[in-house]
Amino acid sequence: MLGYLSVGVFIDGGYYAKVNRALKAAESSIIRVRSLFDFICGRLAYEEGVNPSDCQITEAHYFRGRYRVKEAYDKHLLYNERKFEDSLIENDVIFHYKHLREVERDGVVQVIEKGVDVWFALEAYELATFRKFDYVVLITGDADHEMLVRKLKALKIKTVLLTWNLTDVDATSPLLKEEAGHHWEFSHILHQDPGLKHHLLYKLRANDKDLGDEF
Question: Which of 55, 80, 131, 190 is deepest in the core (most CB within 10 A)?
């Protein structure tokens, strides 16, 4: 049992957005960042047998590709992005962005998000090394982060993979689940505790219909 828990949280923004899009479509709801962080601290405190006040997220980081300002303006995304960033700032989340590129191939426009996963892994590993977190929580389902989990375990840092599989398309990589020491899957957690959903989600009102999928 540890007397105090220092927790680092690292959010894969692309994955987080997919979860919110699915929640918005199915339930007209999106995740409350504050409630998500409260859940993480509460569960870790319970599992380690410490007082919840002695379990703190000492750093939280969010990684995502985003459009340049002109493109975001043309796509009517600026308000959505700022609204979501407000929720990150209010919860002391540090955001890391790289520019997106659009490439047309065979008449189809594809959005290229290059280098974000590598940046995510490097920052998580470097900060875990220097900050010496007791736990690192990774919110992602990407198989590319399998080696990151392995490296964190080599540092003897307990690692939690936090996922929410709402569609078959967004299913978590089996290799990533196998590598993670702890895996929290919200669809299973909420099945066991349906009341948690009310606390965890923000129900969109009629005047929220134009908010982005990440707010």
Answer: 55
DSSP string of 97-118, one letter each residue:
EEE-EEEEETTEEEEE--SHHH
pLDDT score, position 207 = 54
Question: What separation in angstroms does the CA of 121 have from each of 48, 73, 158?
Answer: 26, 30, 16
**Separation CA 179–CA 176 (nearest Å):** 5
Contacts of 60 (CB under 8 A, 6+ apart): 8, 9, 10, 11, 37, 91, 92, 93, 94
Domains of the chain, start order: 5-208 (3.40.50.1010)
pLDDT at 215: 43
- Give 29-75 as a DSSP string: EEE-HHHHHHHHHHHHHHHHT--GGGEEEEEEEEEEEE--HHHHHHT
Q: In this predicted model, what pLDDT tens digit does every residue of 75-120 receive, in sequence order?
A: 888 888 888 999 999 999 999 999 887 776 766 766 667 789 999 9
As a whole number of angstroms, the distance between CA 76 and CA 211 comes to 11
What is the pTM for the complete model shown?
0.89
DSSP state of 3: S
Tell the residue number behind the tokens 């940046």, with chain if given. 119
Give, in order, the Cα–Cα distances in Å from 179 to each of 52, 55, 75, 147. Answer: 27, 24, 39, 8
Instruction: Using pLDDT thresholds of 50, 70 and 90, give the confidence band for residue 26.
Output: confident
Q: Give the tokens for residue 94.
A: 């540090």
